[in-house]
Automatic annotation (TrEMBL):
It comes from the Eukaryota. SUPFAM superfamilies: TPR-like. This is Pentatricopeptide repeat-containing protein. Coiled coil: none annotated. PPR repeats lie at residues 154-189, 190-224, 225-259, 260-294, 295-329, 330-364, 372-406, 407-441. It comes from Hibiscus sabdariffa. The keyword Repeat applies. Belongs to the PPR family. P subfamily. NCBIfam families: PPR.
Amino acid sequence: MGTKVAFKWSKQITPSQVVHLIKAERNVDKALAIFDLATAEYANGFRHHHSTFGVMISRLVSANKFGPAEDLLDRMKVEKCDLREDIFLSLCRGYGRVHRPLDAMRIFGKMKDFQCEPSKKSYITVFDILVEENQLKLAFRFYRHMREVGVPTSVVSLNILIKALCKNSGTLDSALHIFHEMPNHGCPPDSYTFGTLINGLCRFGKVTDAKVLFEEMKTRDCSPSIVTYSSLIHGLCQLKNINEAMKLLEEMKNNGMEPNVFTYSSLMDGLCKDGHSSEAMELLETMVGKRCKPNMITYSTLINGLCKEGRIQQAVEILDRMKLQGLQPDAGLYGKIISGFCDTNKFQEAANFLDEMVLGRTLPNRLTWSLHVRIYNMVVQGLCTKSDLSRAFHLYLSMRTRGISVETGTFETLMHYFCKNGDLLKAARMVDEMVIDGCTPNEGAWSMLLGAFWDQQMVQEAVELFQVEMISEFTEADRKIQDKAF
């Protein structure tokens, strides 16, 4: 069912009245209902105008309702309505915003079918969307097409071309070549040109070249933006030139610019990598004092740095702060803290964080999976050495249900401590599950377990255990014969 809107039109309904009502209505479905009510007035001589179509298409695009927006575009053609470039561009930009560059290209292609000749503005908009979305082959082809149809070169189009060339280290030299040629074509580089190149050079570790450009920029009366300062600060921090990065921060502030979250996070990363997590913590307080909200990268950087310096308690405090801000730590961050507790033999605390992770349904991804397999095994073995065998066993069971592979060392550690505590049934269970998992206990582990059974005169269990070993050995031998047969 459609959205109902109840009101009466004035006797003489006008396009400007419809535009006003659509703009004033916050709900996009109700706005579309108003548009449809106006369509119903066709019987009374009203006709939709490019302005009513334009505002409705714009509202639909803003709400990502691209299907209905394109239907209206087709209707405009049928109703022989004046089709303006801006309507097509609003659709192109909408598709660009939701990372659908090929649809933006398709809409651009429609312009000529609708007898709307694209201007330089349309070409540049689509070119920028393709570069922004990393459709570089298509972008370069499109740029050649622009040149062929006679779209004049401008600072804006060259800046987009430079941005495309700065996305790969292999094309940086071409970007610099275009930059040096720009004045010869009547297109002197602007602040955006310098910023794009500095960002590209820093991303690929060419910080010295970026610094030269940064100084040249000032002589050309081009003011560096926050993004340019932050890119250079980030580049310097990656090369551990912290003092130089800090000087740039001061210069930036003196020029009346407030550092953003990227600037602060880059500096914190540099300080942490250089073993100065205390200074990074001070920077966090400065940042919060300036009402600049830390993000996931800021917190991750600090937690990594603190864990690396063995300051686990402070890392936990940062984790709590992060959760208070409503940010959910990922499995990688939990992993760092759990590893930190393991390194300082605090296995109970490590187990608490593993529990918290499971309760919060924070799952390891492909990159952090091997780290978590290692951590689980480490915590189970560590809890055994801390005489917390019950918890170690529960964690082991959790590993099995969650499909986390148990290492031979973990089986043997559990077996050793179950034997030590006289819980031989659980020790035997470890052997069973170990064999099922395709692990073979070492000779020492077997001797210890069989010895424990003999000591308790549990001959029957010892014989059964011997049978399990024999079966696993025969199975292994049988498998080897089969392998050789093929």
